[in-house]
Amino acid sequence: QDHILVEGWRSTVSYTPNTELDYGTLLCWGINTVGLQRHPCVFHVFPAGHPDPVHNCSMYNLSVTTVSLRCVAGFDGGLPQTFLLELYESNSDRLLANTSSPVPVFSVAGLPAGMTFTARVYSFNTKGSADVLTF
Description:
The protein has no helices and 14 strands. By secondary structure, it is mainly β. The model has no long low-confidence stretch (mean pLDDT 92). It comes from Cherax quadricarinatus (Australian red claw crayfish).
């Protein structure tokens, strides 16, 4: 009861898991003069972790000096994630571009024409980074 705050038609519960046993499912019901809520509100509480790697990436040239890349995001680990693209010249492993995005879609312009590139894509959140996908 110490963690429940009722203000008029609004109720708030504060819940902080302290051990692994505190994660799981929380259920809540409302009641008023009409009766008890039939189906509870359901909240799943799980520990946050680092994100899963991106997958299904495709890279394509828009022009001789522009490369675009699109991937499918993996699970975010329960936290907001940021995506990174590192673009290297394949022969020398020289970093040509390093860009971030809130979604796994990138476009890099102004590249030297006629080169072969290696892309390294990964995401991170406050718990860590995903495995790097290189292609």
